[in-house]
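Hi all, posting the design record for the shared folder.

TITLE: backbone redesign
STEP: 1 of 1
STRUCTURE INPUT:
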């Protein structure tokens, strides 16, 4: 859902599959999360799929 939402907003993103990417999994755990999705926008780490939080973070960066 996050991928589709970011695509609709024409925002570039990097997807990390933590079930196959061991480095990505380690980074997720280092951030204090053990489940996905977690969207990192700038310095913000947004767990789950929260449209308002994602839009707010993108707006703060001037991405939308």
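Okay, here is what came back for every position:
SEQUENCE:
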């Amino acid at each position: 859902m996050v991928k589709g939402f970011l695509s609709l907003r024409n925002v570039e993103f990097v997807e990390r599959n933590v079930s196959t990417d061991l480095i990505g999994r380690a980074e997720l755990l280092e951030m204090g999360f053990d489940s996905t999705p977690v969207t990192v926008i700038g310095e913000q780490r947004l767990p789950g799929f929260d449209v308002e939080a994602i839009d707010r973070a993108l707006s703060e960066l001037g991405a939308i």
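COMMENT: The first strand starts at residue 38 and ends at 41.
Let me know if anyone wants the other runs.
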